[in-house]
Amino acid sequence: MSLREICWNRGWQFAAISHEDNNRCNKEQPFEFISVVLPHTCKELPFDCFDERVTLGHWLYRKDFSWEESFCGKRVALRFDGVMCCAEVTVNGKTVAKHEGGFTPFIVELTDALIPNRTNRIEVWVDSTENPKVAPFGGVMDYLTFGGIYRDVTLIVTEPEYITSFKIWGENLLTNERTVAAAIELCPEAVHVGGTLELILTDKEDQKVFTAIHPLEPGKMIYRFSQPLPAEKLTLWSVECPVLYRAEVVLKCKNGHIDRLGVRTGFRQAEFTVHGFYLNGEKLNLVGTNHHQAFPYIGYAAPKRLQRKDADILKQELGLNIVRTSHYPQSPHFIERCDEIGLLVFEELPGWHHIGNAEWKQNAQRQLEEMICRDWNSPSIVLWGVRINESLDDHDFYTENNAIAHRLDPTRQTAGVRAIENSEFLEDVFTFNEFVYNGQTVPIRQQQEITGLKQDVPYLITEFAGHMYPAKRFDAEERLIEHALRHAKVQDAVLGDDTVCGAICWCAFDYNTHCEFGSGNRTCFHGVFDAFRLPKYAAWFYESQISPKVRGVLRPATIASMGERSGSGLCPMVVFTNHERIKLYSGEQFLGEYFPDREEFPHLAHPPVIARRGLDFLWGDFWKGIRVEAYDGDVLAETVEFARDPYAVGLTAVADDTVLMADGSDATRVVLSLVDQNGNLMVYNREVVRLQLEGDATLVGPKYLPMIGGSTACWIRAGETVGEIRLLAETDYFKALPVTIILQ
Ligand code: GAL
């Protein structure tokens, strides 16, 4: 029988053991259980202003399951993709495994612990406290980690002889003869059985690219394959065309047992050099965001669809080409989606400033190993982060971390994110959080000023903006414009400096944090989107850099209102666009023609258009609104209109998905907006939206939502019954058309 993987997310019981006071863990008392489906957060939270200590504590997950005939003679195991932060797994009351570290997967072998022909009980005792022995904990840090079995659990059934790991990569990819290389490791039981090991590579049409077979040799555990292929037989993976292949290893033992391990991969050559980043030999300026994996209300426990959606937002909505998984390994679903859509990834080990004692370091190194082994087949990953984000130098620790990464994966470069100038450079790429720009200073410094080295090295900016200029989506438009222009300024400067590989901004989405950070409500408003993934103007700046061949973008960064700005008026009007020029009209009156500001932003592909004159309306003037027309050549490509007298005409409710799985955890976002005659957001409206859900589904978050910044959002979590669900949304004045979602 070949390997079986069964989703084990359903049918769990959950109980809180102790929290808040967080020093009591009594395994004896009777607990109050509720039924839950994974991914699960140990504590659902308000949107903000909560004390995160309520998420810290001890929790129990329990699942009873029947022994199956098909387990007879097999190896049975569980894979936990992520349990925050420490887990002790028991089978029928006996401890079978412990894992310390909330971001990496672990496998629990059940074979010897299961009792045949009866119901077996699995328990996972979860400790979500910020255990100072475990990375990233021990100091203060600017993010929360929530808690729970917040990723998938999978039941694995194999023969006793199985493949434990499979790594595949490309070599000589820029030559006419490309090579596919692989390393496969077998479990000890498979080492003396005799038989064959076969590697099969198939393309996305399911056509075989090649097959290679090795006989099993007695005592040998690790096998290497190397298969030369003419260039036309192997298409390279790239950000524009992320071609994936399926690779499968089949272990055929002489005793008739078969095991298979399949992975999806792509082949590409990625290199950070002193002159920039090269993908498949072509220079690519890296533009990206940092990404925290947190969501409102549910913390880290977002299911597959939401993880994938985050990657889509960054790549499809903003056109970015890189994301940094700050500051820890993120969901396998997120990484898989990055592979599929061609979004490069800089993945780093868990940490934030603090380096602990020897035990802590060992733990961090184990998590580093687990991260690399989990993701080494992902073509999107181009850099391993082996230093604790923004920590001090630690020669021995970081020399070892670097060596670990190179030993496990010689195919990728390493980096270590720092914020201190002249820090010791041990890795392949000097990655620096460049928080110099305050609106007046230079946007970025020369790399040698930062590295303290006498020669240039591969150099990447891994953070900027963030706390230097927090901006709420509901801030006044002047602040939101300045926020966006700061992003534009830094990205422009990076493009103008050949020795910088690119810049990854801080950050994608606003996030909940500890009280030492944030804006008083324990939220860092550092995102180019808010926590609902709704865009601020800074997101529009990134969107405007999308090639017009992909799609046109026209985003006037204004609400076009007379009294919004200091001193009133609309000048200067900033328009983020990738069209060639814009014309402004008020009614029939032509106000002017405007071009991308190449003086201010000489290096951007599509500098913002800044209309500094021609909009002479002031406070109390009679005017006829604004029409923004975007042109390419003589062709009118797009128009955005602002009414002179905007008023709310309706509430809209739009779901990201209309079909969900009836698996108890699938979810989608619904965006609620209050719009005027032209569909523009009524950003200062403060209505409360009342939500009502019909059918087998639950609302993530409250059922009364304040409109802030003209829109808000909720998530709907599917139940386990196939059928239809409906979300009804209304304010005192408006009713949105019902949102219908099919559960299948
Ligand atoms: C950096 C840090 C990030 C975040 C950011 C805010 O120093 O690496 O995690 O705190 O500041 O701007």
Number of domains: 5
CATH topology of the largest domain: TIM Barrel
Oligomer: single chain
Bound molecules: beta-D-galactopyranose
In whole angstroms, the N-to-C terminal distance is 30 Å
Low-confidence sequence ranges: none
Determine the strand fraction and express it as a percent band.
Answer: 35-45%
Which features does this protein show?
Immunoglobulin-like, Jelly Rolls, mainly beta, TIM Barrel, binds beta-D-galactopyranose, 48 strands, 12% helix
Helix and strand arrangement:
Blueprint: E1 4-7, E2 12-19, E3 34-36, E4 57-66, E5 75-80, E6 83-84, E7 86-91, E8 94-100, E9 106-109, E10 119-127, E11 148-149, E12 153-158, E13 163-171, E14 177-186, E15 195-202, E16 208-215, E17 222-230, E18 245-253, E19 258-265, E20 270-273, E21 276-279, E22 282-283, E23 286-290, H1 304-317, E24 322-325, H2 332-341, E25 344-348, H3 358-375, E26 381-385, H4 395-408, E27 413-418, E28 429-433, H5 447-451, E29 459-463, H6 477-495, E30 502-505, E31 511-512, E32 523-524, H7 537-543, E33 554-556, E34 573-577, E35 581-586, E36 589-594, E37 609-611, E38 626-632, E39 635-642, E40 650-655, E41 659-660, E42 667-675, E43 688-694, E44 697-700, E45 704-706, E46 711-718, E47 723-730, E48 739-743
Parallel strand pairs: 23-24, 23-30, 24-25, 25-26, 26-27, 27-28, 28-29, 41-48
Antiparallel strand pairs: 1-12, 2-3, 2-4, 4-10, 5-9, 5-12, 6-11, 7-8, 7-10, 13-14, 14-17, 15-16, 15-18, 18-19, 20-21, 21-22, 31-32, 33-34, 34-37, 35-36, 35-38, 38-39, 40-42, 42-46, 43-45, 43-47, 44-46, 47-48
The structure holds beta-D-galactopyranose (GAL).
